[in-house]
Here is the input.
Amino acid sequence: MAYVVTEICVDCKYTNCAAVCPVEAFHEAPDTLYIDPDTCIDCNACQYECPIDAIFPDYDVPEKHKPSIEVNAKEANKFPVIVTTKPPLKGAKCSDPSK
Here is the structure.
């Protein structure tokens, strides 16, 4: 099992989740984050840190977000690892209710 960042993160890109990851499984794309399923150790720390509920265990990803499982696996290693907290993107597509 691995955790998955869904498209809910697109244009929001909160990084609290990456900062708590003990194995550096998060990768930063310009508008979102991805989790490398081969690095993820299923510790669940990231899910609790996500303020917009964009992260799910792969077995519990909502049906409409299932494509995110494959997207994370394919895209994660195309981008650099992120281990720190940065200001959120909060762009136009961000579904963050606190925006």
About this structure: The longest strand covers residues 3-5. Helices lie at 16-20, 45-49, 67-75. Residues 21 and 27 are 11 Å apart (CA to CA).
